[in-house]
Design goal:
164 residues, mainly beta, Immunoglobulin-like, 1 helix, disordered C terminus, binds copper (II) ion, Lxx211020-like, Copper resistance protein CopZ
Length: 164
Amino acid sequence: MLNLSLVKNVLIAAAVLLPACFANAHQYQSGALQIAHPWSQQLPPNAPTVAAYFVIQNTGNSADRLVSVDTPIADKAELHQHVMQGDLMKMQPVASVEVPPGGTVTFAPMEYHVMLVGLKDRSLLQDGKHFPMTLHFEKTGAIAVDVNVQKQAPPDSMEAMHTH
Ligand SMILES: [Cu+2]
């Protein structure tokens, strides 16, 4: 039995969140995939690594897979995931990330993220700037995005914020 009042509450919550998301939303589409609001947290200038986040939505009928990421500002961009090991949250590299049909995969602090290793150009890693990044999918191919660098995490990922 579907709980209608619960569904209603979820819809209201979504409607309340929307204006905040749209305030600085930017999004990319290729085939059945949508990439919403790529962003990165501004870190101290000597931070060894920087993470990038976004939300992938698959509006199609078949799964796709994010297999790699690259950006001209870093030697490497690795796909990482956070996992619980006992009481500790640790991050580890993953080979690829599946995006199921009709599904959404969120890259956010404490979840999946893209880790930029070996930073070559830090000039764009400041609040208000953005840098280019390309996501490579098994079926859809390459999607080029601009990653917004911001001091403040987007409101919807605020509760999950951390640095590493
Ligand atoms: Cu990481």
